[in-house]
Structures are given as structure tokens and as C-alpha cells.
């Protein structure tokens, strides 16, 4: 097991915020202290949460276990249905507290039918649209046979889960002819650690998540739609700012997933990459502060289709005005040999608003000065 003990920038931010929160608390101001802050401050009070990214070939299936509670988010395709059931049994699963079907495409839903048949399922969360496939009918039948009703929670709804919780991020709207964009997306939180799963949600749904006002920042993102270029927009990456991305796709899949565009973006932000097509099933355990992975990231940024040239130049041009302004600031800073340094932290940046840094307290100095102070270039902007 590999221990990652590095404090994330989010944790550093929280440690900065905590004294401020305490002042408010002492002044008798009633305010909600985030779960993360309490967890971090109190040390190892948060329980463990283990997330398994199952190798289901071209599909998606994620098992989450925490303090005796079980969640399965998608179950992969028909071909791997038996593997998923066997894997869950191996992990000692008998009951599933939350069975979440992101959407009704076979590569996500088929395996859930097996789970409904074998395990004692308590709650089914799914998307509020109807699919025309036979498989969808089988799914509906299996849910009914268990005496359950599908729940279609609204964006923002939060559920307690084991030592943490999960919040519904999407879908905000149901597209008539969309299946992927109707995906139920969630943010799973355990103390100071968090994960975002978006099923096959594409740019349109990502945009809605970005404008929902929900905090999308996370440690681990599963890039939508198996790393397809139709998902993982720049805006979404800038809102989620993950440290790690886990791509679930099949080796040599016919769609060429993951796309070069997605991999180029992840590479340019130096997001560490895990891939089920290269590494098989991957697990990570959160204790509320640190993540322990079953393997090192492969950081293989090659696309599924070797001939994929990507469209990064065009995409860069198409970025939002805000993004362009940010880039200009960045290049100006780089040209003048000046860099930005935040009030705390061990990195220097191209901009004064990288990640969660506070632009008001960041100061500019030369790169040489920053290096002399022992600061290193930020991986996200350099
Ligand atoms: Zn799909
Ligand atoms: Zn899919």
C-alpha cells in the first residue's frame, strides 16, 4: 500500500480558515462548520472509507464501503456482471445500502441487475427518464421484485453514508433525447477527502454542475464518459481541481476512450492518473485526511486510439473569457520573470488565483526569489 501523507492545498486552506471559524463560534455566531474542518482538526476521528474502481472493461462500476455500509455506483456491462457480484461477495457484501444507477446505458446498468438479484438492496437511486431498451425493463422489474421504488433525488440532496456522506450533483434537468447527460452525479465526502463520480455526464451537464453553486472540488475525479472528449471540460476541471483522476475504460475499446483531448488536459494540470484499462481494479482508502492507494498512479496519458491527434488548440481558443484572461495573466507573469506566492504553502504560481489560493493575500516576486525561499513550481500551473 502506498501512503500519501502530503497535505493537500485544500487541507492547508482549511487549517487557515479554522481560526476564523473559531472566532465566529466564540462570538456566538451560529454557523455551520464543514465536516472536513472538524475531521481535520480532530485528527483521526473520521472513520475509513474504501473506494473500489472495478475493472469492468468498457464500462463503470464503483464499490464504496464505510463502517459497515455499502454503496455501488453503476455495475458495468453484462459481460462483467458475474465478476462484479463475485467481487462484492469477496469483500463480504451481503447488503447494499445505496445502489446508484447513473443512467440506463448497458455498460453502467447491466451489472446492477445482478446485484439487485443477489444482494439485499435497501435504496435505489437512479435518473428520472425512461430508456427504451429491454435491459431497462429488466432493471425496473428487478427493482420492483425487491419491493423497492427508484428514487430520483434533486441536486443538492445529501445522504449520510458510513463515516461520511454523499451529495447529488446532477442531473439538474432531464434531456429528452439524452441518456449520458441525464447521469446521476455525486460528490462523496469522508472528512477532508472527497470524490466526484459523474457517470457519462457530458459538457452540458458539467456546465450545469459548475453553475449549481455546489462546491465541486475533490481529491479524486472519475472523468465522465470513460475519458471521452465529450466530457471533462476545462471549466469542470477548474471547478473540481482533482489531485487524481481514475479512468474506467476497456483496453483497446472501439470508441478510442480515453480521448487525447481529455488526457492532454489532465497532463497539463499534472493530475495523477489511474486507468482500469492499464491497471485493472484499483482501490483507495480514505481515513478522512489521507488516501492510501492499492497501486501507484500509472500516469499514462496516451489516448485509447493511438492515431487520435486531439483538438487541444481549438479547445484552448474556445475556452471561456475568464479562462483567457487567466491565461494572459499567466503568460505576462511568466514573461516578466515574476511569479505569485500565496501567504502559505510551498509552491509558487503563474497566477494569483491558482487552485484555492487567496488572490488578496498572494504577493508577486521573481522566480529566483521564490526558489531561494525553497518554494517549488506549482504542478497545476507549471
Ligand atoms: Zn452512457
Ligand atoms: Zn458509459
From TrEMBL:
This is ComEC/Rec2 family competence protein. Residues 351-382 are annotated as: Disordered. PANTHER family: DNA INTERNALIZATION/COMPETENCE PROTEIN COMEC/REC2, RECOMBINATION PROTEIN 2. Residues 58-251 form the Metallo-beta-lactamase domain. The lineage of its organism: Bacteria, Bacillati, Bacillota, Clostridia, Lachnospirales. InterPro entries: ComA-like_MBL, Competence_DNA_uptake, Metallo-B-lactamas, RibonucZ/Hydroxyglut_hydro. It comes from Dorea amylophila.
